[in-house]
Amino acid sequence: MKKVGVAIVGFGTVGAGVAEILQKNRGLLLARTGLDISLVRIADLDITTDRGVAVDPSILCTDAFAAVADPAVDIVVELIGGTGIAKKVILAAIQAGKAVVTANKKLLAEYGAEIFGQAAEKGVDIYFGASVGGGIPVIRVLREGLVGNAIQSIHGILNGTCNYILTRMENEGLPFDEVLADAQRLGYAEADPSLDIDGFDTAHKALILAALSYGVQFPLDSILVEGIRGLDGRDVRYAAELGYKIKLLATVAREESGVKVFVAPTLVPKAHMLASVSGVFNAAMIRSDMADDTLYYGRGAGRRPTASTVVGDIADIARNLAAGEVRHKNVIPKTGEPTPLMAASDMRNAFYIRLAVDDRPGSLGRITTALGGHGVSIAAALQKQGDEKPGAVPVVVLTHLAREADIREALDEIRASGVVTETPVFYRILKD
Amino acid sequence: MKKVGVAIVGFGTVGAGVAEILQKNRGLLLARTGLDISLVRIADLDITTDRGVAVDPSILCTDAFAAVADPAVDIVVELIGGTGIAKKVILAAIQAGKAVVTANKKLLAEYGAEIFGQAAEKGVDIYFGASVGGGIPVIRVLREGLVGNAIQSIHGILNGTCNYILTRMENEGLPFDEVLADAQRLGYAEADPSLDIDGFDTAHKALILAALSYGVQFPLDSILVEGIRGLDGRDVRYAAELGYKIKLLATVAREESGVKVFVAPTLVPKAHMLASVSGVFNAAMIRSDMADDTLYYGRGAGRRPTASTVVGDIADIARNLAAGEVRHKNVIPKTGEPTPLMAASDMRNAFYIRLAVDDRPGSLGRITTALGGHGVSIAAALQKQGDEKPGAVPVVVLTHLAREADIREALDEIRASGVVTETPVFYRILKD
User: Fold this and answer.
1) Which residues pair with A133 in a beta bridge?
2) Where do the domains of chain A lie, and which CATH numbers do they carry?
3) Which is the catalytic residue, given A205, A245, A247, A260?
4) Residues of A with CB below 8 A from B296's CB?
5) What's the pTM?
6) What ipTM goes with this model?
7) What confidence tier does A359 reach under pLDDT thresholds 50, 70, 90?
């Protein structure tokens, strides 16, 4: 029976979960893999705080690099987070010829090409299943189950904090600020919630999915990222009346002219599986040329679900090491011609537009004329009973597929023409 | 670049799909695996019918065993189906030291232990990802992603024919026979639909999932299998009114006294993700100790989705072969003490019961007394406006958790007492 030594670097929430699983389910892992996967080192600056998991004190240390260098360590599990020391630890592990597991989406979204390149050069495995979707095996599926498929699109609810807020806004009719404050009180949102609610966490994950699907790493500042901050409860309500739920979606898709990658609050038809994803749960719907639509659902964060995926990666690498093999040499496979990123202005989507229309004859006509003048075709227009300022009437327009730039120009023109009393609000609609 | 030779044995729907993917997406597979996965043999008794995929005629042959023996063949893909020649081909491949991929759920449900045993003895890989869930990677997830998890329960919609019929009954209010006839006309149901609608296909899959989860192979005739044949439209309607959809569910769960495995039409709460699975789509919800709930959704059958999973297995084995490794030595891992199968009579579920109650004073009282006398506690009872025979009133009872034997005895007593004009109907309810 082969023994495989694991070091956890970063003994926070997920690190404690990994330690728990490796110890509690060690027999299960042995029965299933035939390998003795053994936790031999835990490194953290704080090795005194109780993490709710009993570990042999002799494996604790404060020096991450000593843990990496320990000859008993075959696999380094980086769970520090961020792009500073975490990157140094991973590169040190690679240089020492150790396999790496990480859940660090920010690091991979920013420095993936460099890190994967070094791993390939040194011939070590790097697995990062938990960097997208927590306990959901979306990365495993992209790399393995769908290996024979060209990926056409991925639509993902990839941030539990946002989905929790959106679910409560929808179910309870509460305003954004109130639910956010509640989520912070309950520990579902950080004191500084920007990474989640402004869409950046989801964007990091979208960039990793795009890299795996299309072999290209785009920088964060090249893609459209809109979060849910300040989402108006009226839009949640009107969307519901029209048969949609608003979800913060990551969209990654191949179109003729390039790859479309963006993050934005998006109207999802209620009959769509993604509309059924509530609370802190995450899901990704992948459309591919052979398997067609498949969806993966589960907890996108949390100690045990994230650790479950980390341990799945550890077990895979342990099997690789036992076979003397490096399995995923080609982390971001180049699967064809280099693929350009579509400019956000060129993306085509159906849109939901809400306008506070000045209640005078001709206003609606000028709006439809402006939209039509930019080639935007209207699928439905509804005048709502609203709580706008006196003299303004809320009007919701659903469009057919339209170019993003055309929508923006039409709305600029509408605003400039003085027929609306507020800046128009618009969201994209998920079309099947 | 290593070359891996594949033989497809059985050139039917799925075989043609595998040939299509291996040829059309060969470059993709090469980019992602670094291996040249090459289709070198196709064996079928009929090698003249056009399968809608162009193949080099020189690779076609009518002798399955010659294909298996061909030295260019490293992986034998068995897609004949059934338990006759398919079994012989697989065993011949194993004896010849070739790796095997199969989608044959019936064969594995009946002869899995023997086949896996021989594969282990000869030291060859056998993969069977497409035997459960078609294009959905539920087996991959059980073997890999959730490798660090103890499986608590699996609830699966694993037969597209049944789910198609149930979806149309629900959405269009049509009777079972009419939808079945339509499904047969459209090619969604076989001329002899028994394997699907009587639940046996789902049961084969449930037995494979139970084996992977708990290390035990139970025989088909040891488990409770109820299909959807003759399902009454009233039950679909009443269930909908009560907030449920009726789905043919495979249930596999670990309880204190053993493993619970059964297949039966089951009421699924509408807010449950499984209730959103419509038409021919399949899904499995897995609850495990670390990842908690995860769900996998997609097309459970069909040429390309099933072939997609077969190709995922082929790619995995190709990677194993390139590394000189047998990866899944331990196909049905013994993860603890041998686990007994719970007797169906001992299973505890919540129940939906429909009774045609004789419209006389005291009838309802005798029913509630009979249920209470067998320890069955009532959660809700509703008298419906119905289309029963004159003098009879439809009554629907929802119970709390109750022992199956107690329900059956109580209903026998109710029937014997003469207060019902039809045999009572009952279904189990999925509880979260």
Assistant:
1) none
2) 2-134+303-322 (3.40.50.720), 144-299 (3.30.360.10), 344-429 (3.30.70.260)
3) A205
4) 294-297
5) 0.95
6) 0.95
7) confident
